[in-house]
What we know:
- The structure is a single chain.
- The chain is of the alpha+beta class.
- Among the domains are: 4-162, Rossmann fold, CATH 3.40.50; 189-263, 2-Layer Sandwich (Dna Ligase, domain 1); 396-474, TATA-Binding Protein (2-Layer Sandwich).
- It is 35% helix and 26% strand.
- The chain has 19 helices and 18 strands.
- The chain has helices at 4-8, 11-14, 38-44, 48-53, 61-64, 80-88, 92-100, 115-120, 123-133, 147-156, 173-183, 197-210, 239-244, 248-254, 314-329, 366-375, 414-423, 444-447, 459-474; strands spanning 26-31, 68-74, 102-106, 138-142, 190-194, 216-221, 230-234, 258-262, 268-278, 284-295, 301-307, 335-345, 351-359, 378-381, 386-389, 397-405, 435-439, 449-456.
- The strands form four sheets. Strands 13-12-9-10-11-16-18-17 form an eight-stranded antiparallel β-sheet, sandwiched between helices.
- The longest helix has 16 residues, at 314-329.
- The N and C termini lie far apart (55 Å).
- The mean pLDDT is 93.
Amino acid sequence: MRTFDELQAGLGATLPLNTPGATTEHVLVVLPSFSFGESLLAHYGDRIPALEHRYLVAIGVLGRVESCDMVFVGSQEPGAEVLDYYFSLLPPHRRESARRRFHLVTVPDDSPRSVADKLLDHPTELEQVRRLIGDRPRYIEPWNVTDHEVAVAVALQAPVNGAHPDVLPVAHKSSGRRVFREAGVPLPYGHEDVRTVDDVVRAAHDVHRRRPSATAVVVKHDDSGAGDGNAVIDLRGDVRGDVESLPAWYLRDLRAGGVVEERVEGVAFSSPSAQVDVLPDGRVVVLATHEQELGGAGNQVYMGCRFPAEPAYAAELGRHAAAVGAALARRGAVGRMGVDFAVARDADGRHALRAPVVNLRKGGTTHPFTVLRSHVPGRYDVEAGRWVAAADGSARAYRGTDNLVNPGWLGLPPATVLRAVGDRGLHLDPETGTGVVLHMLSCLAVDGRFGLTAVGRDADHAAELFAGARAAVEAVL
């Protein structure tokens, strides 16, 4: 049995097998482990299987890489009609082969835990994955990597395309701010390593002194995601009272560390991000830039995205993200990472860009990007800020969300939603590389929610497809 470090040393030889044209048979284990702390997992609760199912869009990889077998590990079976749908999006001559090479392993456990944690408790399913792999080269594609994913990797003797858990704290909110400084990336004014109410109050007052125009600060847990560890404190009110009134669980988790930053504001505000791969040899590849759509309390929760980011700063985002990726690579990071930015414009239209967050994991923009890369192979031109299709050099844009929700859709069968969108001719066309891809359909049974990615020739076309798909489902009610 090789150790995790020994397995990771072989990742550089295994990853290239999963590229179009490669001929060596290999196995890609998709492990969409939503591995976070107890507070965040409890928040998502019944939605965790649906979050895992977002990555069923990775079935598109089987249409591009014919030497790949895929083992998808989840905690809820998606249903035959959903799997049939994803295979229908592939070119007709690739569908039968892709079906033979797709294997679903369902861990019978509906507790709010990561798939990796559950799999370790179910030796029958773990052995099933081993049998499906056999003696072929293999690697694990995770959502993020904790000790649970490491244990699964050792059990399967497979490297993981992700950062070692020992590296993760380097990208926590406080440490991430130090990485930004090293990389020469601008960041919001603020303080790291806050842990108590007094720490937050002192930091907030200092921000107010140094940034008199700031109306609020954002308090963030060091180890958090999706905006769930964020709280906005208005500097014009009772700062101490507002901090003390934060939920008990929030103040408890803050003891592990956090930051207080100025909330970036302007006449206009946007929250773009950049998605990056850090390869095992230390090379950094900028994959995409996005405009994130935020909502929830204080507009801190990720709701969806648009690709690509605004032309005015897309190239700047890419260059900053590459610098951050290089700094993290020097610390041993590998795999997918994302850098979030805050952009404020003044009355004259000039923009100021700041980077508040780096995440050493996949995120909400990962599966929409997977849709694009799988169905319209190509590359992202960092300086031009556009997708360049390999077939003809044409561009693509998309709009994606996991948060189309309507109480009236609660219990709606996935087949009904698929049919509603299909009847309007909106499903992605493998010939044109445009159309709509639905995901997270299992969440219809939880709270009437699902997601989609609309791929268009340009941003207007993507928005049109997005609106059409939403209208098609709304018409079902």
